């Protein structure tokens, strides 16, 4: 149950921003903060829910007591399934239910404030342009294209042996995003569309590359992350021989 009141979104843009904030919080719980989330989802406790909050944070808490609740509620009792499944499968299950909850909250606001057909369509299109929580958590967001469009080797860090074996040129672990290429007059618009479809996304927050941002690749799952999302600086990355993202580190610790 959300304990801190948040402004109620009333327009399509406000509902979408609310959706993005909650989504970012859920992704953080299931990736960068996965160890903390795992610990809080204690099967010995009562029925627990995972909430994403509009300010891009998350919490594991009991469901709302009032009936009916002020907002649609997330899946109940996620903690009971934790120890009965492989962690990867459990996180995927929570991610699927989180996607369903995000949509229900967004369209609850749409129904409450009388969104018409065109407004509902616009809201869904804005939401549909983002990868789902499940896609981010499982790394299913255009994996093949991600490898083809991964950052180049301008970084200073040691390169990963596993990445070298898959590509003709060495692939560095931590890099900055190169400046966008200038498009030709002929076919430039088409190439730009292809680039957007194959853009590499951060495994923690799900956002695209930005200019001059530091990125690092996990040597286990081969997903890319913003350095700031996994608390890795360029200086720290210089001393990492094999980087493991929070999710992979948590899995290996429990083996």
From TrEMBL:
Pfam short name (any one): PHD
Segments of skewed composition (Acidic residues): 182-195
Single Gene Ontology BP annotation: chromatin organization
PROSITE patterns: ZF_PHD_1, ZF_PHD_2
Keywords: Chromatin regulator, Metal-binding, Nucleus, Transcription, Transcription regulation, Zinc, Zinc-finger
Compartments, record wording: Nucleus
PHD-type domain boundaries: 199-251
One MF annotation (Gene Ontology) recorded for this entry: histone binding
GO cellular component: nucleus
Entry-linked SMART domains: PHD
Function of the molecule: Histone-binding component that specifically recognizes H3 tails trimethylated on 'Lys-4' (H3K4me3), which mark transcription start sites of virtually all active genes.
Assigned protein family: Belongs to the Alfin family.
Record comment regarding domains: The PHD-type zinc finger mediates the binding to H3K4me3.
Subunit structure: Interacts with H3K4me3 and to a lesser extent with H3K4me2.
Name used for this protein in its record: PHD finger protein ALFIN-LIKE
Species per Swiss-Prot/TrEMBL record: Abeliophyllum distichum
